[in-house]
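Holo prediction. Input below; ligand is S-adenosylmethionine.
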Amino acid sequence: MDSSYWDAKFDTDDYIYTTVVNRFVKEYCEPLITKQPKGKMIDLAGGEGRNAIWFSEQGWQSENIDWSKKALSKSLKLAEERGVSDLHFAHIADATGFESVLTPVDIGVVAYLQVPREDLADALDTLVENVRKGGHILGVWHALENLADGYGGPRDEAVLPSVESLTEICAGLPVEIEVLTNRDGQVQTKDGLKPSITVVLLAKKL
Ligand SMILES: C[S@@+](CC[C@H](N)C(=O)[O-])C[C@H]1O[C@@H](n2cnc3c(N)ncnc32)[C@H](O)[C@@H]1O
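Structure of the complex:
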């Protein structure tokens, strides 16, 4: 899937992934935000901006880095609607190698960047580089186990990380893992709510 796939997907007035912050991003980042009311964050592959803009609504500067122009224009529109345009930046770039305008940031978020393992390792490496020492990265993905035991997300094991693959990737990065676990949840399908499995990573930059 290249950026034109995502531009086509986002080419609608509806927000495909909603305008509501992801529940895991909120759960793990809220305590960090509370400790530091005026921080800076990167939302890598931030799409239409639901997570980055939630940070800006808490007073943080946010930078949504995504390769889809369409996603980023919706992110800017949402920031304007929420009255946080002065705190929100949209930056078109490939997640596997980018230069942030806010670097070094306090938190780097990456939610549902479902790409092959090598690309994910490059993206996490670049994200960690742009986080200050003592800052955090928070990652959220449809888990590998979701293929057999859950609904929603890509049906391609090559782009589904697991606790094991993320442990290996993190071993090559200057981070200390604080949380790395599969979490149960639910997704809406045409047949109603169905179970889903999400892998969540919270790591501190060393
Ligand atoms: C499933 S969406 C998730 C969007 C957002 N993180 C959220 O949770 O709502 C995946 C996003 O990753 C972006 N993306 C995928 N591969 C990318 C890459 N190599 N570089 C930058 N963005 C990428 C897409 O454009 C899309 O916005």
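Residues 136 and 204 are 4 Å apart (CA to CA). That is the main takeaway for now.
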